[in-house]
Amino acid sequence: MRKGNLFTAFFLCLLCSCSQATSQEVTGSGLVWEKKAIHLGAVLEENGVRHANFSFVNKTDEPILIQEVIPDCGCTAAEFTQDTIFQDQKGNIEIAFDPKSRPGVFSKMILVKTNSEDYQDTLVLEGINVPYPEDIRQYYGIANGGLGFRFGIVNLGSVYTNGTKVKYIDFYNFENYPLQLNNIQEKLPPYMKAKLSPSVVKGKTRGVLELHYDPLIKGDLGFFEETFTLSILTYEKREIRIKTTATIYEHFDPVPINEVDNLPKLAIKDREVDLNKIKEDMPISRIVVLENKGPKPLNIRKVVANCDCLSIDLPTDELAPGEKTDLTFTLDPSGRRGLDHKTLTVFSNDPLNPTQTIMIKSRIN
Fold first, then answer.
1. Is 164 within a domain?
2. Could you read off the pLDDT of 250-301 as tens digits, one per residue?
3. Which residues pair with 249 in a beta bridge?
4. Residue 351's closest CA among 286, 264, 280, 290?
5. Nearest of 222, 273, 271 to residue 245 by alpha carbon
6. Residue 56 lies in a domain
7. Are 156 and 211 in contact (CB under 8 A)?
8. Which residue segment(s) compose the domain that 117 sits in?
9. Are 64 and 31 in contact (CB under 8 A)?
């Protein structure tokens, strides 16, 4: 039932976003905006001013006149419909963003004032401003298939299962020839999509590679180091390899205060285990007790070790209310000496504490 509702909501949103804004297709009251927030993605400084258009329909019972549009930054300027907008008519506000000398992530607020105190709105313009470097070869010093990148590894950071993570990677095309992505990306996994901006990057210019990482399609949790192969077309077909890191977490909706005591609750008796002095040639095992202290069933989604030297045995991943289970881990200290710290991360459906870490300390002789 829930999936059906989600699909219906998604379909309605898609229909509204793809249709022309008319009096019959836009529902709601007040000033009904097609979008109140626009993300420009990566903005390359050398490409100059970028524009974003905010459109709305007057669904009030009175004529509306936009009196003033006030950006919160001198880097943005606004042009807007000057005429009176009658009921069911459409109005527009165009925002121009000047990226010069304003590097980094930006989020600009735009206040819209009308002749009616009841219908004031705030719009948001977001993006990532990429300044033009003084020394191209030094700045894009990581060579990869004729392209120059800033870093050898793309860190996607924390990725949550409620949406696709998008990473914008600026690069320089050191070739004399234009390049574009091959339409067929046979070596990309289904949870990864790639896009170029612009779609054709001329020789001796910059471009932006967008990586779209969908954790729901990947269907896993934890930390991942992966290498993806992209097919590009220039004067020849070529492949480039992109190394990434990402940590995937399950998303949980906020819990109402009156539901806090009606949830599965994972309790770990020993969050820190000190093995004291151990010998390099003798693997050692310990037990950590996991307990469900909540009134709802607890599911252990996954237990992740940060080292291949740790092996895990978990007899069950389903715990009824009040039930316990023994998590047994074995540390193989072969080839290790001195102070040693390892971790186990337990992922569960406890929405208040979905990830919990067990620290394992030892001194290896």
1. yes
2. 999 999 999 999 999 999 989 999 999 999 889 999 999 999 999 999 999 9
3. 160
4. 264
5. 222
6. yes
7. yes
8. 25-130
9. yes
